[in-house]
From TrEMBL:
Bilayer-spanning residue ranges: 70-90, 111-131
Membrane-protein topology: Multi-pass membrane protein
UniProt KW keywords: ATP-binding, Cell inner membrane, Cell membrane, Kinase, Lipid biosynthesis, Lipid metabolism, Magnesium, Membrane, Metal-binding, Nucleotide-binding, Phospholipid biosynthesis, Phospholipid metabolism, Transferase, Transmembrane, Transmembrane helix
Protein name per Swiss-Prot or TrEMBL: Diacylglycerol kinase
Annotated source species: Ottowia flava
Length: 134
């Protein structure tokens, strides 16, 4: 048996294979969702999605419309988690102000804003086509 590399000792996930790797990756993903839930912005977006995703099945006339409506909400949550990850890494590096740290955080925030604008546009267009007179 070959000796373990230093990477294997630091991160046991790298040594796992097959279903064990998939199982542990799933557990890490659930831990990430729990950590995200502790963030107020993610929690607000998740609660909004819990309300609006079922509504997308009523509002959408085709499976494509339902996918666009619900997918735009999931995209907001995905981008929020990535933004939180960026902010966490920047904060771990150090609490002092740095131009590159600000830039990274601002770009993550801008990504969240763009995803929110996309979701809002998709939902407004669906509401308009659903309720506008013919």
């Amino acid at each position: 048996m070959p000796p373990e590399s230093s990477a294997d000792l630091v991160n046991p996930q790298k040594a796992r294979t097959g279903l064990s790797r998939v199982w542990h990756a799933g557990l890490y993903s659930l831990a990430g969702l729990r950590a995200g839930w502790r963030e107020p912005a993610f929690r607000q977006e998740a609660i909004l999605a819990i309300v609006l995703i079922p509504l997308s099945f009523w509002l959408g006339r085709t499976w494509v419309e339902v996918a666009m409506l619900s997918g735009s909400l999931l995209l907001v949550m995905i981008v929020e988690l990535l933004n939180t990850g960026i902010e966490t890494v920047v904060d771990r590096i150090g609490p002092e102000w740095h131009a590159l740290s600000k830039r990274a955080k601002d770009m993550g925030s801008a990504a969240v804003l763009l995803s929110l604008l996309l979701a809002g546009g998709v939902w407004l267009a669906a509401l308009y086509t659903h309720f506008a007179p013919p």
